[in-house]
Amino acid sequence: MKIPVLEKFMFDEPSIWVTAATVVALIFTAYLGLAELIGNHLQYSKFATSNSDQGIKVSGRTGFLIFYTPAFLAGLLSFFVFPATGDLRFLLLKFAVTFHFFKRDLEVIFVHKYSGDVILGSTILISISYFSIAACLIVVHYLSLGLPEPSFDLKYIGLIVFTLGIFGNFYHHNLLAKLRKPNEKVYKIPQGGLFNLVICPHYLFEILVFWAFYFISQTPMAFACAFGDSIYLISRSYMTRKWYVNKFEDFPKNVKCVIPYVF
User: Fold this and answer.
1) Which DSSP state fits 57?
2) Domain annotation covers residue 258
3) CA 228 from chain center: how many Å?
4) Span 217-237, mean pLDDT?
5) How many domains does the chain have?
6) Segment holding 222, helix H or strand E
7) Which of 10, 42, 97, 193 has the highest CB neighbour count under 10 A?
8) In terms of residue numbers, what domain contains 79?
9) Strand, coil or helix: 26
10) In this predicted model, what pLDDT tens digit does every residue of 57-87 receive, in sequence order?
11) Burial class (CB in 10 A: 0-12, 13-18, 19+), 9
12) Looking at the predicted structure, is the pLDDT value of residue 52 above 90?
């Protein structure tokens, strides 16, 4: 799936099967974004507590660990499953994918405070999605080893963007956690950092992480995952802002969804 304007920024795809998988990944993640906009939310966070009769539940901490742990393990196992090739780009990609999901697990255990349970069906779907993304990013790049490198090498830009995304995401997750006192489950309007400009800065920085995966890898699969993840998180942030506006009469009108001053 080669996009002409981006040819100089991407590897060729190694097979028609990889092309098909790339198209499926893009369509699936874009569908999740569209589903959010029409109110068919994945049942976690505030959208689970407002739809408490939607199915079997697990605790918030357990649910979020299920979200991220399989993807972390996929990244970790890649260091053992795939031999060392001496390819710096591949090494950086494996490190970035593994570290991102490991960080998310650490936040689940030590940082996040939970408003309630999450719905098991959505938990499994999200877990499979993240695992598939992690595995596909790594496997597709492995299959691309030996192909001609893109004309423009973006891996070092990717490393910078990844670092910014990781720290920005963690910082704003920490601000969210500090909003609540121990055992408190009520929602409050977030403040501090980029929360003064957008309601979902943690989504903004997660989007940066996924684009960093693309910059490091430069495969069409990585582009599809970054683009699809952006659609989903932008859609989720739009619905999150709408939720806050309906819940809080004093919600600041100048606070955007996810992109400061823009959207």
Assistant:
1) E
2) no
3) 10
4) 95
5) 1
6) helix 220-247
7) 97
8) 4-247
9) helix
10) 888 899 999 999 999 999 999 999 997 777 9
11) middle
12) no
Given a contact cutoff of 8 angstroms between Cβ atoms, the answer to whether 127 and 66 are in contact is yes
CB atoms within 10 A of CB 13: 21
Residue 96 has what pLDDT?
A: 98
Q: What is the DSSP letter of 53?
A: T
CB contact set of 27 (below 8 Å; sequence gap of 6+): none
What letter would DSSP give residue 198? B
Residue 51 predicted with pLDDT over 80 = no
For the chain, the straight-line distance linking the first and the last C-alpha, in angstroms and rounded, comes to: 29
- Quick check: is 212 in a domain? yes
Task: Decide if 181 contacts 105 (C-beta within 8 A).
Answer: no
Q: What are phi and psi of 119, to 5 degrees?
A: -80, 130
- Taking CA atoms, 21 is separated from 11, 97, 183, 210, 247, in Å, by 15, 19, 43, 18, 40
**129: helix, coil or strand?**
helix
The identity of residue 67, as a single letter, is: F
Cα–Cα distances in Å, from 170 out to 110, 199, 205?
12, 15, 9
